[in-house]
Amino acid sequence: MGYLPHAARTRSVIIMKPIFIFCGLIGSGKSSVSKLFAKGIGAKWNSFGTATRDIAGERGVQIQRENLQSLGAHLIKNERELFCKRVLAPVLGDGTECGVVDGLRHAHVLRELRAMLSPRKIICIYVEVSTEERLDRVGKRDGLNADQLAILDSHSTEVEVKTELRKLADFVADNSGTPEECVSRIQNWAKA
After folding, report:
1. Burial class for 65, CB neighbours closer than 10 Å (0-12, 13-18, 19+)
2. pTM metric for this prediction
3. Which domain holds residue 68?
């Protein structure tokens, strides 16, 4: 694949570097992994969550998980192109460097991003961890129990993650160890 070497210029043609888009269930560690990955390859990072929080602040929406999920669902349904452009803007650059985006939740958004940025490659990385590990992480981080996590997982912003996005992912990264180990697996795959 060789996605990670520096951009090369051949005569007047610029070989555009890819945008890596991370997805995974709540508590999978996708944000930690995507940030470490971006740092490791010297890429700019942004997330759908950051963009949603920024828009919530601009619109006077209280920053709580349920409100953010509802706003995210509204943005995807009613303002998808604007929302996608807002998420991508900080990482696009001139194409000579990779970019990293965290928090993809919908298969149709992945398809739209690929169409928007064509011919630039979008590489989808699905971060996966066991249900037990997810419960442990969200319990420690957010104080959530299994029933609360199940409610969050059933929201329209989450249902496609486990099924459709996992199938569409270019690489499924096991995050059952440390985030650093997961990033190493992704980097090894991307360099192959």
Report:
1. middle
2. 0.88
3. 14-95+106-191
